[in-house]
Amino acid sequence: MSRDSRAAFVVALVVGLVLATGGNAIAAAPKQPSEPFFPRSGNRGYGVKHYDVSLGYQPRSGQLTARDVVEARATSGLRKFSLDLDGLKVTSVSVNGEGADYSRGRGKVKIVPATPIAKGEAFKVVLRYQGQPRKVIDPDESTEGWYRTPDGAVAVGEPVGTAAWLACNNAPRDKATFAIQITVPAGVMAISNGSLLSRQKVDRRVRWSWSEPTPMATYLALVDIGDGKLVQGQIGTLPTWTLIDPRLVKKSKAAINSLPEIIRFEQKIYGHYPFAAAGSVVDVANLQYALETQTRPIYAFAPDRTTVVHETAHQWFGDSVSLLRWPNIWLNEGFATWTQWYFAEQHGGRSAQSVFEELYRRPASQTHFWDPPSGHPGQAKNLFAVSTYVRGAMTLQALRDKIGTHDLLSVMKTWARQHRYGHGDIEDFIALANKMSGEHLRGFFHRWLFQRGKP
């Protein structure tokens, strides 16, 4: 992700460095609850297997209607449970075909099934809801959720904004497959994750059916509704779907057309592209950031090639291999930012080492740059801090200097393969790096990931 004003600074800093020619307090890696930054999001009493959601949207009024089918399995006995949903009016809920009691409270739909659910039992929830979805404001005052645009809408979710339009178990640890149908007026495009299965005329409207059969964290779900031409293509045998707002086609062309080269490069170093579809969405929206929505990143501006490299790297690091807890965000953003540097190095730009050295010469007094430590941002408002990206990438470059390029790339490729479609945390990565390099790296990672100030 390249996020908001802070990430705009990060991207500008990193791009500038790559393309230009030219008293520490110690904080041990803290033991944390399963999700310290957003403890109210999600429900640990079940795991979702599949979402089948049908959306109807009227761009003129901003009105959304939804039918959401959630297939899950109980991890404990459930007399009641909840789903995350922010703001919209729920009109009905059933569990396993029986009407269920429900109530609302603080971004939740609280559900009491007619028949309690036993531990290990598979169950199905069907919810209907409607209203005008809204933006979600994070602790750092950035926003995600549902954005109305002049020609439609954009919905993005990192970290918790998906609940603005989807009733879900909104925690990165709970990944599921998705089927998303979006019905809009004829002539309006409706894009989501995965592969386009069909476009069907329904009276004067069109139903777009998308399928993502690979497990996906809820925050990576995408909805984009608006003008443009949907272009289908191929990268080898990999199908792609790309939509660019007509106002951004000219400015976006070079960067978006570089996607095949970028995917081939990242496949070479990180292993086979992890999903069955790829592509891009470029739209005019008041987001001011890009996001690695699974299979099809979205850019709320005309991206440059560096940003496309970053968001594509997330398909391996963040999307296929996901976080268990948000404090481990370094595994997403540090990896994607370092990939920018290495891509530039391998394509005639400055070496990642020269970028590292220039950054490291910056004084320790630049606390926005070094703190908070990238291995644990400390609190939710620091999740997308500059240090998460830049110090995070510097950690990998310092590791490269210590164990060599071959071993670093081998560790990263193995990480992507071993945790494919699953999860990992920083301790897992440290253990893998120790094992594969034959080095004792815990002190190194402590300094670079968890110690405040300049390592």
Helix and strand arrangement:
Blueprint: H1 4-19, E1 46-58, E2 63-74, E3 81-84, E4 89-95, E5 98-99, E6 101-105, E7 108-112, E8 122-131, E9 135-137, E10 143-149, E11 152-156, E12 176-185, E13 189-191, E14 195-202, E15 205-216, E16 223-226, E17 229-235, E18 238-244, H2 249-257, H3 259-270, E19 278-282, E20 290-291, E21 298-299, H4 305-313, E22 322-323, H5 330-345, H6 352-360, H7 367-370, H8 386-403, H9 405-418, E23 423-424, H10 426-437, H11 442-450
Parallel strand pairs: 1-12, 18-19, 19-21, 22-23
Antiparallel strand pairs: 1-2, 2-8, 3-7, 4-5, 4-8, 6-7, 9-10, 10-11, 11-16, 12-15, 13-16, 14-15, 17-18, 20-21
What attributes characterize this protein structure?
five-stranded antiparallel beta sheet; alpha+beta; 11 helices; 30% strand; eight-stranded mixed beta sheet; 455 residues
